[in-house]
Design goal:
CATH class: Alpha Beta
Distance between the termini: 54 Å
CATH architecture: 4-Layer Sandwich
Number of domains: 1
Structural class: alpha/beta
Strand content: 15-25%
Helix content: 25-40%
Radius of gyration: 19 Å
Number of helices: 9
CATH topology: Nitrilase/N-carbamoyl-D-aminoacid amidohydrolase
Shape: globular
Largest sheet: 13 strands, mixed
Length: 291
């Protein structure tokens, strides 16, 4: 299959039609390159706050509510585009108020047949929990699709090995991200590459990019698209299948062969995924030694 992962710049929007046109352009471009799975980044939907004006877009709490209110309409567009271009789309994540209190950080996976389901972020960053007051969402899910089994670890979630292990049946783990500093980008990228190593799967990182004075939420963003696998048989020696230029907006593409994932899990030089359980008795019996 061919995967397209985005380095995505949120725009100031003057109309809903402008948003529709933008999404259609991005999806069309990737589809013309043969992409069957498109991955947009974390908090890319914050651009929808601009439709309510500068005061709303520049106010953190008001922008959360403005974006949440429009996610139903955004879902309609994504469903239509997924069907029209016969592709799977992981839409840009958004803060969503689902009636349970504080908003969750939610990404939605759309299928070519019109079906869709969501994945909520599990573990909040300090900014999300201390400033945004974003809540952890529902459980991890594994999506069984025509492209294989797909999991989603939103940004910071990719930095936690046990979340990746819970998705050990996944062929692909999608990692939509939004990071302010270069160090943040590398934390998520290292996390994504580590999950590919441990689970012997392919991870797909998308990023928000650019600087935007109109937003308190996504004012500064550093990142790039990237697709990673285990550095083993059937994959590049460094594990990097494809990577975009830092802060260069656009799609990054990679060809992924599910048989290569199955082969490395069965007969790789190392078998990290199969040998995972051997850690447990050893970490449970750590001996403290004085020197």
């Amino acid at each position: 299959m061919k995967i397209a992962t985005a380095a995505y710049p949120p725009d100031w929007l003057d109309s809903w039609a402008q948003y529709e046109d933008k999404l259609a352009h991005w999806v069309s471009d990737a589809s013309k390159q043969g992409a069957q799975l498109l991955v947009f980044p974390e908090y890319g939907a914050m651009e929808l706050s601009t439709l309510d004006g500068a005061e709303t877009a520049g106010d953190l709490e008001r922008s959360i509510h403005a974006v949440s209110d429009r996610m139903g309409d955004a879902a309609d567009i994504h469903r239509r585009l997924a069907q029209e271009f016969k592709t799977y789309i992981l839409g840009a994540s958004a803060p969503v108020l689902d009636g349970t209190g504080r908003p969750v950080n939610r990404a939605v996976l759309y299928a070519p047949d019109g079906r869709y389901d969501h994945q909520d972020k599990q573990i909040m960053t300090r900014f999300e929990r201390e400033t945004w007051d974003i809540a952890p969402g529902g459980p991890l899910k594994l999506f069984d699709t025509a492209l294989g089994k797909i999991g989603v670890l939103i940004c910071y979630d990719s930095e936690f090995p046990l979340l990746g292990r819970a998705l050990q049946q996944a062929d692909l783990i999608l990692v939509p991200s939004c990071t302010e500093a270069l160090s943040g980008y590398w934390r998520v990228r290292i996390g994504a590459m580590s999950r590919a190593l441990e689970t012997q799967c392919v991870t797909v990182m998308s990023s928000l990019v650019g600087t935007y004075d109109w937003s308190e939420a996504v004012d500064v963003n550093t990142g790039a698209g990237g697709v990673f696998g285990p550095p083993d048989i059937g994959f590049p020696p460094n594990g990097v299948l494809s990577e975009g230029g830092l802060n260069e907006a656009g799609w990054t593409y990679a060809e992924v062969d599910l048989s290569a994932i199955a082969n490395v899990r069965a007969d790789g030089h190392v078998l990290n995924r199969a040998h995972w359980a051997e850690q447990t008795p050893r970490v449970d019996s750590v001996t403290i030694c004085s020197l």
